[in-house]
What does this fold into?
Amino acid sequence: MKRDFLLNRLRQNPDKQWDIVVIGGGATGLGIAVDGASRGYETVLFEQSDFAKGTSSRSTKLVHGGVRYLAQGDISLVLEALHERGLLRQNAPHLVKNQAFIIPNYDWWEGPFYNIGMKVYDMMAGRLGLGPSEKISREETMAAIPNLDERHLNGGVIYYDGQFDDSRLAINLAQTAVENEAIVLNYMPVTGLLKDRSNIVCGVNVTDTESGEDYRVHSRAVINATGVFVDNILSMDDAGADTLVRPSQGIHFVLDKSFLQGNSAIMIPKTSDGRVLFAVPWHGKVVVGTTDTPLETTDIRLEPRALEAEIDFILTTAAQYLKKDPRKKDVLSVFAGLRPLAAQQDNKSRSTKEISRSHRLMVSLSGLITITGGKWTTYRKMAEDTVNKAWIVGGLPERKCVTETMPIHGYVKNTRFDSPGYFYGSDRTAINAMIQAEPDLGLRLHPDYEYTRVQVVWAVRNEMARTVEDFLSRRIRMLLLDARVSMAMAPEVAEIMARELKRDPAWIQSQVTDYQALAKGYILT
It folds into this structure.
């Protein structure tokens, strides 16, 4: 996946009418590109920044049906999500793994109540279930999570869900789309919509932020899959368009593994703000979250920041369940993400936590197709529904979706998730060959972490990493895992990337300076 090659394909066909143009390179947009291209539609995707830069790299790292949605009675969403969870586990076994979750029970009624609920969850998953839930004793609960607060603990309920690396899946989806002849380009913001004499959308204006070059790209169908930014694209089409998104912010802490001993995750079904709280093992650390803070549309930013009230909430809530109370100084990184909840006219007064996570698909009078809502787990079904709409709107030949059983780039069975670089899947063979040819590439970027120089080179050559942030935040996850250590890595990463991208010393200095400023926002003081 090489940006220059893909850009040349676009440049060499200035008058071509593509079948589908996708705006947005997050989970939904990339899923649409994979679906469209794999059906044989000529597909182009444009992302304003880097793939998964926004919400899609800031999730709780779960592939799940949604226990909370079951409690809310949103049965159709849970059924859909559980089905998609199973398909994703089959199609990307190098990234998605079974994760045991324990619901600790502190009141006498919680054991039977949650046990029954999780049995229903299992039943709904059917043959795509990941393991049977069961009620466990106090002793079994403490054996699984030794540092759980045991005061008044009666026992627990264990169940199984999926866990994954969100931005790594995004990169693999981009690679899968390219392997199916799609063009996917990062750092290519759409600046306007093209319309014909009948005021029907027929393409986009787009700018390459690296070169400043502008392009007019014609298409039979244009899809707005920009997450929390969908209203920006809608306003290009109609300045008076209704607001489609109600944003909600969620934040997560990353803590040292000592805060969650054992391999099981903790799930607290209801906190004081009405959301669930997770503490999940991830890349040798622990991800703790999340919050639910309604935002105004004017607060939507590509780089959201945790609010002090959210920080205090998670610290206080986590301390209620862990023997070792986390403090600000223990937080290795804090990151915030914005949920693109689909606003409905009948829920203007409802809290964001009550709004369904089901996706919403609409077609404007101009023919612009917009998809919003949903979640990572259901990205594939969202993409299928959107492409089904696109062939109708764009007058394309009807072709059946093939992604239900299509392996995603990197596919390899029987992955050892404790093995360094497991998330590269089938690419690990080529990466190891690079080290054999050039042993210095096997040197670590930091003595405390397994990440090596070869991963920087690989990310530039094969994963379209263009900046130090792209690499440290989304190709490996150091910005989220340990923001301070990622700052220490930045100068060497910049030098390696500069050699690969043929950049000068000024670029190196600028990249390091920009990254250090960014990473400071992930550190609590």
